[in-house]
Amino acid sequence: MNELREKRGMGLKASRTISNTIIYILLVLMSIIWLIPFVCIVLQSFRVESTWQVGYVVPKQWGVDNYIALWNSDFKTWYLNTFIIALVVSALQTVIVLCMSYTLSRFRFKIRDGLMRFMLILGMFPGMLSMIILYRVLKDLGLTQANAVPGLILVYVASSGMGYYVSKGFFDTIPKSLDEAARVDGATRAQVLTKIILPLAKPIVIYTILTAFMGPWGDFVFAKYVSFGTSSGMNVAVGMWNWLTPDMINQRYTMFCAGGVIDALPVAILFMCLQKYYVEGVTGGAVKG
Amino acid sequence: MKRVITLLLALMMVFALAACGGKANNGGSGKSELAGTYDITVWCPDNEVELRKEMIEEFNKSNTDGITFNATVENVGEGDAATQMITDVEAGADLYNFASDQFARLVQANALAKLGTQAAETVKSGNGEAAVAAVTIGGEMYAYPLTDNGFFMYYDKSVIPEDAVGSMDKIIEACEKAQKYLAFNAGDGWYLSSYFFGAGCVSQWSTDKDGHWNINDDFNSDKGLIAMKGLNKLQSSPYFLSKSGAAEFDAGAAVVMSGLWDYSAAKDILGDNLGAAPLPSFTVDGQDYTLKPFMGYKFIGVKTQTDATKAAALHKLAQYLTSEEAQMKRFETLGWAPVNVNAAASDAVKANPVVAADMEQQKNCTAQGQVNDGWWNLAAALGATAKETDDEETLKAALATYEEGLEKLKNLREGLLFVGAWNGWNNADDADTYVFTGDGDEKTLTIDVPESDYMGGRIVNIGSWESDKGFAQVTTGADLIKDLGADNPDNNIVFAEAGTYTVTINTASNEITIVKG
Q1: Domain, as residue range, for B397
Q2: Is there a contact between B247 and A52 if contact means CB atoms under 8 Å apart?
Q3: Residue B6: inside a domain, yes or no?
Q4: Which of B366, B395, B427 is the last residue of a domain?
Q5: Which is more confidently placed, A216 or B408?
Q6: d(CA B168, CA B158)
Q7: How many domains does chain B divide into?
């Protein structure tokens, strides 16, 4: 009996080892394929012997010339613009989305269902459709070109209320009896949100902040329209795009790579720190209570 | 709620008011009527920005009219200028660089101001005929030539011997011997058309002020077949690379066909080994044909202005920026080939082998007209077929397909239609529509007008409903149509009774003749 169990145990162990090995080899291969472009960009950004595209990956001479050149170019302005936009938008959008979700999750008012349905339909129209009219409105308000930053913030924040789905789903899973208990103890509605719901919904708050930060961080199409050829109003994506002309690419290729690295840094760092909450947030919102 | 709306409206008004600031201060009791300070926006490519700022400063100091420009110079490349300008002319730059392929579009969008008599004279006296023709549409000039925009051959002197430079066959032979590549972008119509022009084909493009273009093209011919064979021969070499760009020198190429924008990179890579020459000749069936590339220009344009003094001052600046001295300065600092005849003939330019090769190439080139966007894909398809096969029938079939495509393009473009209530106001090129036909200015069509309540129609360009040709332009046959007066705001032609009519329109004078039967 003992022998038999041992044999079977070894067989199980062996087969698990084999399947694990295969899975890990596969995962390693996939991650290599995924990481190659990023590694290339990082390596190219440290290449100083030439500034154009070359047929090899590892630089022959290493240096930080490209980063210094970035510092001396308009890149600083673009970076600051992108940062301000993303920061302000993530703050405002988080407040709006959380209030919206709380309201729709906990309050029962007359047009609640109608409102939700209306927003669902509105959300089906591609945002690009409104681009021209938005440009026109922003231009008449004087919020284009050099003033593109407040203009873009306005546009990104204006539609944020409609992104309530995930966090409302999460709020729905928090038992209502908690609210009721707090209300009995004399808490106001606002206190219920800040003192009861939000501490319980930490992952979803962080998820909301993250997504709100990333949207404007990588935007190109609308940002290009609104900045309209004015360097001081551009974000990183639009500004660097101007380097990709046949005239300029030979002088700017490695600088472009360096810009890409710097541009990716904050998002990468944010993700590394908050990864745990992010996954919880995405899956947490999906549970229906 | 009301309070919120009031607040919003108030905010909007504040913004709107803020948007009205920043108008040009045109006060100043200067020496001439142009004297004053002007706020302007200038677009030029990244590498020219610093130089442009310097030049405007110099202009401010040296001009005798008392003009001072307070300029914001932004980096907008020549390739992107038209797209940006056309999006919003009002917000666009007052003075900007653009490449010649965007010329017609910009004129149509009213984004280019006409040159005055004096400015036009300056451009005519300073530039060659081809450059002047390139800035002229419908007898009017609209821009200032800045530099040329064409390509020629860069090569590695250590690989390609001096006596091989003139012949594609010998160049490929030398490349194969050294196991180095020849880079020629045979997937791009702009480059590969040099084979066709070299073989003697023509593809002449012209556009009038209204944006109607015309083409005279004979690629589908025996000469075209020669070009196809040449392209096949080139692309079948194992040492052929379908790319352009000096960076290829770093990736094993010994020859790169490219333009002056690659000058500094090519020089950095090859150093003293850098050679430059006009494009070589290719050999088909024992006969030599010299490649003849498209040559375009880059221009400086002035945006149409509401303020006439500002416009005049801007034209002064544009002339200064394209003057012989300015072009020489650009040649020295940026390596841009001058187009000004005096500057082009100067010793300094001739002494630079690369720029000299570009200038030499200018003598054997095809002026790039207002090529329709759809053409590039048609031409690129030719290169792709020539890569696959040397079978004569297939090559001929590809040329026939090309011509068909061109015809389709033409049909999309022109053709006056008669759209009417009885054919459902059909304005697309369809079997149901009435298309005017005929050579020259006189175009004719016959229509059957069935009995109905409203027997009206108008003459439009295909795909459009806008028309300036209708009732008011009818010179003969006015008795056959109804005069509805104020009830006819769209200038429609409304027939008095059903029947068959022959309508003739003179596209030059826009006179319409209507004959019954």
Answers
A1: 152-292+372-410
A2: yes
A3: no
A4: B366
A5: A216
A6: 17
A7: 3
Given this model, what pLDDT does residue B17 score? 45
| Residue B404 pLDDT greater than 80, yes or no | yes
The pair of three-digit structure tokens given for residue B455, joined into one six-digit string: 């027997």
The yes-or-no verdict on residue B433 having pLDDT over 90 is no
Do B158 and B227 share a structural domain? yes
> The tokens of B226 are what?
């020669």
Cα angle B98, B138, B299 (rounded to 5 degrees) comes to 15
What is the C-alpha separation between A263 and A149, in angstroms, rounded? 17
Question: Does any domain span residue B82?
Answer: yes
Domain for residue B13, yes or no? Answer: no
Whether the model clears a pTM of 0.80, i.e. scores above it, the answer is no
Name the residue among B237, B219, B236, B233 with its Cα closest to residue B396: B219
Q: What is the pLDDT of residues B193-239, one digit of tens each?
A: 999 999 999 888 876 666 667 788 889 999 999 999 999 999 999 99
Residue of chain B with shortest Cα separation from A228: B84
The string of pLDDT tens digits covering residues B473-492 is: 888 888 888 887 777 777 88
What's the DSSP call for residue A219?
-
- Would you tell me which residues 77-116 of chain A have a C-beta closer than 8 angstroms to some C-beta of chain B? none
Nearest to A229 among B12, B84, B265 (CB): B84
Q: Is residue A86, in this structure, part of any structural domain at all?
A: yes
Residue A279 identity (one-letter amino acid): V
**According to the model, what pLDDT value does residue A46 have?**
93
Residue B353 in tokens:
């082998």
pLDDT in tens, A234-265: 999 999 988 888 778 888 889 999 999 999 99
Taken in order B134, B139, B143, B145, the sign of the CA dihedral is positive
B172 and B77 in a single domain? The answer is: no
Using DSSP, state whether B206 is helix, strand or coil. Answer: strand
- Distance between A33 CA and the closest CA of chain B, angstroms: 23
Residues B163 and B173: their CA atoms lie apart, in Å, by: 12
Cβ distance B250 to A55 less than 8 Å, yes or no, reads yes
Alpha helices in A72-164 (DSSP H): 75-106, 112-124, 131-140, 148-158
Residue A7 exposed, middle or buried by CB count within 10 Å (0-12, 13-18, 19+): exposed
**What number is the ipTM of this complex?**
0.76
pLDDT classification of B8: cutoffs 50, 70, 90:
low
Q: Which domain holds residue A130?
A: 73-284
Segment (H or E) for B125: helix B117-126
Cβ-defined contact of B19 to A252 (cutoff 8 Å): no
Domain with residue B361: its CATH number is 3.40.190.10
Residues B360 and B451 in one domain: no
Q: Is A55 an 8 Å CB contact of chain B?
A: yes
Residues B25 and B126 in one domain: yes
Q: How would DSSP label each residue in B40-70?
A: EEEEE-GGGHHHHHHHHHHHHHH-TT-EEEE
Note whether B383 and B466 are same-domain residues.
no
What is the CATH number for B425? 2.60.40.3620
Please indicate, yes or no, if residue B64 is contained in any of the structural domains. Answer: yes
Q: Do B245 and A252 touch (CB under 8 A)?
A: no
Residues 6+ apart with CB under 8 A from B90: none
Q: Select from A74, A92, A72 the least CA-distant residue to A146.
A: A74
Split into its structural domains, chain A has a count of 1
For the range A131-137, what are the long-range contacts, defined as Cβ-Cβ under 8 Å and sequence gap of 24 or more? Answer: A131/A221, A131/A222, A131/A225, A134/A222, A135/A225, A135/A226, A135/B88
DSSP classification of residue B271 = G
The domain that contains A140 carries what CATH number?
A: 1.10.3720.10
Contacting residues of A for B268, CB less than 8 Å apart: 50
